[in-house]
Each structure stands twice: as structure tokens, then as C-alpha cells.
Design brief:
Chain lengths: 325, 250
């Protein structure tokens, strides 16, 4: 998922108000921007929605990396449309975050100077065309696992953003799987690319759900507030259960010798990803952290004169009728 | 070479190369709204390419597809305008290139909607709606950035000075154009000039930008006789997978 390791904020609000707020959440009410909410709820949501938005934005880069090399005109249009969708997701989410009293520019600055994070997955490189398949199939697939339940999250603007986003994400996943099918059933070189893509993206995809959070205080608070709907392990299990048969269908091998169906639990047993690697990536030591952040900063810095120019022109236009009087 | 095939390649290659250039911006635009708007333009242009080159391949009759034409021809067989193969440069150059192209593309497509060739008329009718939107958007952007800050104005003016010599190529006819005009397939390029100049001047004056005095125009793109060095590098990237794995299907 696109929001990892979200720390929930402690709340020091009036206990009576807090109890009434919790009662609304428990009753399944939707919280709207004008409603009273605990400071911790607001701050945690800003962090979570912001990180989700940043992930959509940075997530454009690994796939954008292949747009100019897409092998056919049709593949090029599909990939263009996908990356464009991700920009749109970023925009919906920034708008949702703005209802909590933080501006898009503030959030962007926090991404650019490293105060806010984006999903670890986008710090991995896309090295062959099969990666465009693997990203859609696995990364969008993992994102959906988390985002579908979030359509019922307690915060109205976030839930509504999720409804719009989920429709497009499942489309992305199918398109990714379609690329994998072509590759897995293609020439020897294409099959090799497909297997290699699965090898590289399998564990980073499992990491997307974050480490086990069974005993996490933060998770418990977020679940109480209904801004986190399932535990990380639950979602990871669901993802493996869905994905392993798909890999078999493609004739590809999941790079986990311990992956096997467990009749008793009605799900697969599987190996955990290397959590040291995960924390390294979060600390900025993933294969592409430096490039991703540098690229975001470059685009933002080089775009400054454009944003200023557009604003200056808009201001002149607004001033015109008054000047004419 | 068949004149209609040449003509169709000119239309399709110009949208292909410009669409490719725009797609190079993906995820790197100056503002999030442009990360949404730019891929839209690229998508439209690549979509139009699919129609033009599919028809070109039919007319050619050599069993090729639109993808074959896009991915397997070398520089000398491309027939796009020199303007569209110019590198993106800064956002000012990208928008100015787009505007100078759209201001030709829109009236060209409008004229083609009455082509004696039904298929061309149909393609133009579909594309003209998109081109209308592109022109609106790029001319608005030229006005806003020209009439924005001192810096945005200066960047737009130098982009215009740089790119204006590439605007004229579309309006100079050769034997292919003569044959297309004689059979009422397409308008004579020169007939579009006066309106082009008028609409460009109108937008530029609103943008407080000055049209360069010189009327010099580089040529060699649409005839394929002399592309710039930039096109080869673009093709190197765009065609790489198809050429590296010629027996693969994607
Ligand atoms: Fe997304
Ligand atoms: Fe997606």
C-alpha cells in the first residue's frame, strides 16, 4: 500500500468530545471537514493521505521511465493513460488532504525535503518492459488490497477519493497482467524478462504492506478511528493468496521456495521479505531513492518560473475589470 | 513513391514525433495539473498517428502495419515537420512549439474534413475536435506565460525566436502537395498561411510577445531530405525494443 508505517498522533482533547466522536465512528458515520475532530485524527490523516498522494506522484517515475520506449503505439497510449491516472490520483488525494487544513504546496515541500515519505516500492528500478507488466499486476494489485477497504474509511473526502481511485486501479492491474501474459507466452527472451520482473518485484511488493503491526499501538488507534481497516499481515496474506495462483497461470515461479498452500488455514504459507532491506529503503538507501527525489526536486525547481508566471497572469486578469472602472 | 502515402506519412509522423516529445514530460511537469494535461495531448496525438499510419500502410500495400511504420523506419523515411522533432527544451519551448504546431494543425485538419478522400475526411473529422482543444490550451498558455512575470516573458520570447524559423516549413509546397491539391485530397499549403499568420499575431500580441521579423524557414523534414540530428536519437529510444527483439510480439 502507499501509506506505510503511519504513526498515529496522541490526542489531548476534551474526553467528552472524544467519546462522542468515537461513538460517531463506531456507528459508521462519515466525518466531514466541518465536523469537530480530534487533533490526532486530523494529523494522522494528513500524514496518511499525504504519503498516499506522494506515492501516486513519485509512482509516475518508474513507469514514466518506459513511456518513450513502449514497444507499440497501443502500449504507449495505455501506459501514458496509466501514468496520467496516477497524477490524477495524486490530485484527488491532495484535495482530500487540503480539507484538513494543509495546502498542496506545503505537502509538496515536505516531500521534496524528505520530511514526508512515499511508498518504498517506488524506489526500485524498472529495468525491462516486463516491469511495466509486473508493476501493474503486483504494485497496483497490492495497492488495491489496501484501497478497496478504505472506500469505507471514516473520513468522507478520503473515502470518496478512494472510490474514484479504486475503479482506475483495478483497470491498471488488468492491463499489467495483460502485459505479463504477452511476455510470459512470448519468445524466450520475453519469458526471461517476465520471470526476472517477478523475481525483482515479488518481495518489494510484499513490503508495501509494511511490517507486522499486530502489537502496534499506532495501528490500534488508527483502526479505532477507521482510517486503517485491516492489519498489515491480513492484507499481505490476501495479496499472496490472490497472486500466487496468477503467477502459476502465467507459468512463472514465485521466488519463494517455501511458498505452499496450507489447507488448514485456507491460505498460502510464504516467506517474509527482508525487513532490514525495507528499513534501509525507508532511510533513503533504496536503489533509486536518490534519483527519485532528485527528479522531483528538479521538476519542482525548474517549474518555479512557470507557476509564478501563471499566477502573475491570473492576478493581472483578475485586476483588469477594476482597473477599467 | 506514391504521393498519398507520402502525404499520410507527413500527417502521421508529425503527430507521432510531437506526441513522443510531449510524452517525455510525463511525471516531470512544472505543476501537477500539467502532468495531467500534457499526457492528454500526447494521447490524442498518438491516437491520431494510429489512424494516419494505418491508412498509410494500406495505401502503401506492402503488408506493413502502423506499428511497422512507426517502429521500423529509419530517419530518412520519416516525413514529420522539423518543428516537432525539436527537443523539449524548457517548458517555454515546449509550449511555443505546441502552439506553432497547433495553429497550423487545426486549420489543416479543418480543411481535410472536406477531402475528396473519404477516409482522410473521416480521420480529420475525429482529430479536429482534439486539435481545437490543443490550440485553445497552447494559445492560452502562450498568453499567460508571455504576459506573466518578467522571467516567463523573457523565456517565451527566446523560445519564439528559437522556434519561429521552423514554423514556415508546413506552408511550402512541393510535388506531393501539388498532387494532393490537384486531386482535392488536401489544401495547397500556402493557402493556409495568411490565416496562420493572423492568428499567431493575435495570440502573440495578447501575450505581449514580438514576432521575429525574419521570414526564413528551415526545410527538409516533411520531404525527408534533411532532418535534424535530434530525430535519430528520438528514434533510437522509441524503436529500441522492436529492433532489439524483432521476432517478439508485444
Ligand atoms: Fe494510483
Ligand atoms: Fe495505478
Amino acid at each position: 500500500m502507499y501509506a506505510q508505517m503511519i504513526k498515529s498522533e496522541a490526542t489531548q482533547d476534551d474526553p467528552e468530545k472524544l467519546a462522542a466522536f468515537q461513538a460517531r465512528i463506531d456507528a459508521g458515520d462519515t466525518i466531514e471537514p466541518k465536523d469537530w475532530m480530534p487533533e490526532g485524527y486530523r494529523k494522522t490523516l494528513i500524514r496518511q493521505i499525504g504519503q498516499h498522494a506522494h506515492s501516486e506522484i513519485v509512482g509516475q517515475l518508474p513507469e514514466g521511465n518506459w513511456i518513450t520506449r513502449a514497444p507499440t503505439l497501443e502500449r504507449k497510449t495505455i501506459l501514458l493513460a496509466k501514468v496520467q491516472d496516477e497524477a490524477g490520483h495524486g490530485l484527488y488525494l491532495y484535495c482530500a488532504a487540503e480539507t484538513l487544513g494543509v495546502s498542496r504546496d506545503e505537502l509538496t515541500e515536505m516531500l521534496l525535503d524528505g520530511r514526508m515519505k512515499y511508498s518504498s516500492i517506488f524506489n526500485y528500478p524498472t529495468l525491462t518492459w516486463a516491469d511495466m507488466g509486473a508493476v501493474g499486476w503486483l504494485v497496483d494489485g497490492a495497492a488495491i488490497m489496501n484501497q478497496v477497504p478504505l472506500q469505507r474509511t471514516s473520513y468522507g473526502p478520503y473515502a470518496r477519493a478512494m472510490v474514484r481511485i479504486c475503479k482506475e486501479e483495478s483497470f491498471h492491474q488488468r492491463q499489467g497482467f495483460d502485459i505479463m501474459m504477452k511476455m510470459a507466452n512470448g519468445t524466450a527472451a520475453q519469458r526471461r524478462m517476465a520471470q526476472d520482473a517477478l523475481n525483482r518485484f515479488w518481495y518489494p511488493s510484499l513490503m508495501m504492506f509494511g511490517p507486522s503491526d499486530q502489537d502496534s499501538v499506532h495501528s490500534a488507534q488508527s483502526m479505532k478511528w477507521r482510517i486503517k481497516m485491516n492489519s498489515n499481515d491480513e492484507l499481505r496474506q490476501k495479496f499472496v493468496d490472490q497472486t500466487a495462483p496468477q503467477a502459476a497461470f502465467l507459468g512463472l515461479t514465485v521466488p519463494d521456495p517455501d511458498l505452499c498452500w496450507n489447507e488448514e488455514k485456507g491460505g498460502y504459507d510464504f516467506s517474509q521479505p527482508d525487513w532490514d532491506e525495507f528499513f534501509d529503503v525507508l532511510r533513503g538507501n533504496g536503489p533509486c531513492n536518490t534519483e527519485r527525489l532528485a527528479e522531483q526536486n528538479r521538476a519542482w525547481d525548474e517549474g518555479k518560473w512557470v507557476r509564478e508566471g501563471l499566477m502573475a497572469h491570473a492576478a493581472k486578469k483578475n485586476a483588469q475589470p477594476i482597473a477599467a472602472e | 513513391m506514391d504521393a498519398k502515402f507520402e502525404f499520410l506519412c507527413r500527417m502521421g509522423d508529425s503527430t507521432l514525433i510531437l506526441g513522443h516529445r510531449i510524452s517525455e514530460w510525463c511525471g516531470k511537469a512544472p505543476v501537477l495539473e500539467e502532468d495531467i494535461a500534457l499526457p492528454n495531448i500526447a494521447l490524442d496525438l498518438i491516437g491520431q498517428t494510429q489512424m494516419w499510419l494505418a491508412y498509410a500502410a494500406e495505401v502503401e500495400g506492402a503488408g506493413h502495419t502502423a506499428d511497422d511504420l512507426a517502429m521500423r523506419r529509419d530517419v530518412w523515411d520519416f516525413r514529420n515537420l522539423l518543428l516537432v522533432e525539436r527537443p523539449n527544451g524548457d517548458f517555454a519551448q515546449t509550449m511555443t512549439r505546441q502552439f506553432l504546431f497547433d495553429a497550423w494543425h487545426l486549420p489543416m485538419l479543418q480543411a481535410l474534413t472536406t477531402s475528396s478522400d473519404k477516409r482522410i475526411a473521416e480521420i480529420a473529422a475525429k482529430a479536429v475536435k482534439e486539435a481545437t482543444y490543443h490550440y485553445e490550451k497552447s494559445s492560452e498558455m502562450v498568453v499567460a506565460l508571455g504576459d506573466g512575470t518578467e522571467e516567463s516573458h523573457a523565456r517565451m520570447q527566446s523560445a519564439l525566436d528559437l522556434l519561429w524559423p521552423f514554423a514556415g516549413e508546413a506552408f511550402v509546397s512541393d510535388t506531393v502537395d501539388h498532387e494532393m491539391a490537384a486531386t482535392s485530397v488536401a489544401p495547397t499549403p500556402e493557402t493556409l498561411w495568411d490565416d496562420y499568420e493572423a492568428s499567431v499575431k493575435d495570440i502573440l500580441s495578447r501575450a505581449t510577445l514580438t514576432l521575429p521579423k525574419a521570414r526564413f524557414a528551415h526545410k527538409g523534414g516533411k520531404s525527408g531530405t534533411m532532418h535534424s540530428e535530434h530525430l535519430g536519437h528520438l528514434l533510437t529510444q522509441m524503436q529500441w525494443l522492436q529492433r532489439a527483439y524483432p521476432d517478439a510480439r508485444w
